[in-house]
Amino acid sequence: MYNETDYNEIKGQLNKTVILVAVIFLAFLILSIAFMLRLPRWIGAVFMSFGVCLTIFVWGVYGSPVYNYYRHIKDIMHGRIRKTRGTVVKITEEPVYKDNLLLFYEILIKDEEDDVERILLYDENKGKPAMEEGESYLFHTYQNFITNIESL
After folding, report:
1. I need a labelling partner for 117 at 20 to 30 A (CA). Which of 106, 124, 137, 141 fits?
2. Is 45 within 8 Å of 37 (Cβ atoms)?
């Protein structure tokens, strides 16, 4: 489900966002220093304040979610994967916001090994999973995040 292409795409998107934030900050820093070296120093302070606020806003709205998804993909690509056999009990119709990360489809499975019900999370960016309730599957998971699904 996740591959090196996903990792490279999100890494490129993160690099573009970091460059955008750095350019915004440097542009306003140069403007504020130019005005602070001249007589109306309050204009330089206004430029610096506006630039800092804009930088924080752009990073918070665009950069932070991209960085969180990058870390999530990196953890999945390099983390320990475990395999679980289970029967699908229920799949949510709409994705839910989970673990302060992203939107995920919750998949309730009954683990065949432990006879315990577990909630696994399927990334909404990958689309809704094509699974049937009552069918058995082999789930490759990192923590409770599904990385791959195999039919049995």
Report:
1. 124
2. no
Tokens of 22: 């750095």
84: CB partners within 8 A, 6+ apart: 109, 111, 113, 118, 120, 138, 139, 141
Amino acid at site 84: T
Give residue-wise pLDDT tens across range 42-51.
888 899 999 9
Residues contacting 28, CB < 8 A, separation 6+: 47, 48, 50, 51, 52, 54, 55
Q: Which two tokens stand for residue 117?
A: 């019900």
Rounded Cα–Cα distance for residues 144 and 131 (Å): 17
- How do residues 18-48 score in pLDDT, each as one tens digit? 999 999 999 999 999 988 888 778 888 899 9
Is 118 in contact with 86 (CB distance < 8 Å)?
Answer: yes
